[in-house]
Amino acid sequence: MNLIQIIMYVGIFVFAGTGALKARTHHMDIFGGLVIAFATAYGGGTIRDLLIGVHPVNWVNDYLALGLVVSATIIVSFFDSDQIRFKRTIFFTDAIGLGMFTAAGIEISINNNINDGYAVVMGVITATFGGLLADVLCREKPNLLKRGELYATVCAIGGVIYILLKHLGIEKNLGLFICVCIVVSIRILSKRKRIMLPEI
Amino acid sequence: MNLIQIIMYVGIFVFAGTGALKARTHHMDIFGGLVIAFATAYGGGTIRDLLIGVHPVNWVNDYLALGLVVSATIIVSFFDSDQIRFKRTIFFTDAIGLGMFTAAGIEISINNNINDGYAVVMGVITATFGGLLADVLCREKPNLLKRGELYATVCAIGGVIYILLKHLGIEKNLGLFICVCIVVSIRILSKRKRIMLPEI
Amino acid sequence: MNLIQIIMYVGIFVFAGTGALKARTHHMDIFGGLVIAFATAYGGGTIRDLLIGVHPVNWVNDYLALGLVVSATIIVSFFDSDQIRFKRTIFFTDAIGLGMFTAAGIEISINNNINDGYAVVMGVITATFGGLLADVLCREKPNLLKRGELYATVCAIGGVIYILLKHLGIEKNLGLFICVCIVVSIRILSKRKRIMLPEI
């Protein structure tokens, strides 16, 4: 397992944790928590795999995936959550995960003969549609679609830059690093300056 | 690109526009509008492709698809909507789209070894499940499932007739034209006469 | 058609009936009832097929599937439901269906090179995600994820035992029978004793 895979699994773990936390606010039981955690962590990649035709989808047969989601759910269930502090901590890890997932989604798409434009679309889907799926399952208004902080937009910007760097022949890990840095920076900037997309 | 493809893309454009309009009523931002527009326009065909095993799904790598949805969304966002008049205009274009999508869904299904009965089912799914998906994402009660105007039923009738004409050896474009005419007529008739399916 | 297939179709019929009943409580029309009945009966198997890469999904081209769902929906629509008595009757048939679907999902997964752990996951998905999908379409809070009677947990227990028996070389039909018995027993026991999973 190389460095990138390790960081990806860290991202999965963080996403699963935020999913489990959401399940807690909805007073679900442990099983419901597992489903929401799994949906948050792997939902985006699953939707991407279904759309581009990778089958079975990526996490099937990967016990580490199951183990990470189960551990994250159990940890969150023991957690005496001081939600506000927790949210501040999770903001950074989530932003890092966003960048990683976008880049990973783009790589996988390109390897499956998806063109550049749609590879960015698939990168954004990988990073953001897990949360969307979790919101639908929790019967919440999907956060992703509401007006608010830049989220999917940030992934799209990071993704476009990642693809450009790739065409410029920049080394893959460096490209990934730059993509993550850009995503994290814009996330922070847009939160601080309250930058939002206009309402449709 | 032949005439049928041109009309199909017009249908996609109209469906994307109605999706973007729905997003407006939910006060989403531009990104949310794009997602709902895309779901409305391509959701039905995507679900059909997943069920019958076409992969990648039809719109992947098609920049025109993306372009049409983006343009429709942008146009709707500039639109100072007088919704009632707009709805009247859209009723006809939507009905034409329904007929086109049903026939197209049936053709694609038959080309993928789906039998006649399920080809009609797939035609109805192609025409109507995009709106269903958009409703779920907007957390609306799916219009398609509620008692009201004939909608899916009209597609099913048009689809059955399209298949019958096909077996009678009627030329494809003529069959498509008849299917669309029937769908539009029954849509208008059922709206005027307030014909509904019985409640279950 | 062998005994197992017959019992499976009985399970499908029962699940479709519960779906149609749910549609009634939401005042849908006949078409909405059909969609919810189909989603309840075949939704879990469809999601499993999509995830493990079986295509087209299992029910496509199977007229018996369509016939069973349509009959169940029509019967429910004529039914003058005394819901409480109905619920008691359906509890047992539903529990039997749960066991059958879990075992069938596991068999299909193993035949598609899914490992034991994920085969159990797919068994649980087969048995329970149809109801989840129906809940999402009806805009209900998914029953499966809420704290309440053991449901998915029971399938997981039955599934693990089914896999263990399989590895011990127990004959398939006997394994299936034991799996169903265990699922039914724990369902009854957990309902009587009000056993629940802890909240996350």
Q: Greatest interface and its residue counts?
A: A-B, 30 and 29 residues
Relative strand content of chain A: under 5%
For the largest beta-sheet of chain A, the strand count, sense and barrel status come to: none
- Helical residue percent band of chain A: over 70%
Strand tally of chain A:
0
Number of DSSP helices of chain A?
Answer: 7
Mean pLDDT of chain A: 90
Radius of gyration of chain A: 16 Å
Low-confidence stretches of chain A: none
Domain unit count of chain A: 1
Span of the ends, CA to CA of chain A:
44 Å
Shape of chain A: globular
- SSE-based structural type of chain A: mainly alpha
- State the oligomer: homotrimer
Keywords (chains A, B, C): Cell membrane, Membrane, Transmembrane, Transmembrane helix
Pfam family, one (chains A, B, C): Gly_transporter
Family (chains A, B, C): Belongs to the UPF0126 family.
Protein name (chains A, B, C): Trimeric intracellular cation channel family protein
Core attributes:
homotrimer, globular, mainly alpha, 200 residues
What is the topological layout?
The structure is a homotrimer of 200-residue chains.
Chain A: H1 3-25, H2 30-52, H3 63-78, H4 83-111, H5 116-137, H6 152-167, H7 172-192
Helix pairs in contact in A: 1-2, 1-3, 1-4, 2-3, 2-5, 4-5, 4-6, 4-7, 5-6, 6-7
Sum this structure up briefly.
Three copies of one chain form a homotrimer. By secondary structure, chain A is mainly alpha-helical.
How would you describe this protein?
3 copies of one chain form a homotrimer. With 200 residues, chain A is mainly alpha-helical. Chain A has one domain. Chain A is 75% helix and 0% strand. The first copy, chain A, is built from 7 helices and no strands. The model of chain A has no long low-confidence stretch (mean pLDDT 90).
